[in-house]
């Protein structure tokens, strides 16, 4: 090989090595995974569910745990793919193995209720919920507490209801909750996603965060009344979006 040919061969490798060594640049494979993950997210927001499934499957095959969890949502609900409880459980398992704690909770709920072609398995469901609760996922602990609590007798419920009184002091205003909606590579992307969501009862916060090995990310956080936060989280998770409030989990990011 002549010297010029050698230079053409090694120059791209040298440039790639320099890029990987830069503290602000994510690893090349992370960039590829992000490409497919956010492509799937954009397709999902446009109700292009088959394309979202295709993009997320590619990201999951490259090791993206959050993409695997989102695929589990699609197969559980039959969005863009044929509903299949077994495949949903398999993708949730991939996500859980990748360290996505919420996927362990999703597995627990799937086994508790069953899915398309997947019979309910309460014993396995309780096991998975227990693992998620032990890892600090608050919805899992709340579900275990709910399942463990005996239903109160009807008479006790009636007796516990206090009679209305004009002398009762006004209820204290509930403290606002902080809900993380997602993580983004740029502040502009986070602000653009907030405009798209149009959450009039909540106010946004964009928090810069440096992730080791991945550079700077920007977390989009919504702040507002607990009922507004919980309502949005419920609707977001039903659509397969990542969402958590501070009374649920501390870090589906997107």
Automatic annotation (TrEMBL):
Highest taxon of source: Bacteria
Chain spans, region Disordered: 153-175
Start and end residues of each SPOR domain: 171-254
Naturally occurring in which organism (per UniProt): Paramagnetospirillum caucaseum
Signal peptide range: 1-25
Protein's UniProt name: TPR repeat-containing SEL1 subfamily protein
Compositional bias ranges of the Pro residues kind: 161-173
Keywords for the protein's UniProt record, in alphabetical order: Signal
MF annotations from Gene Ontology: peptidoglycan binding
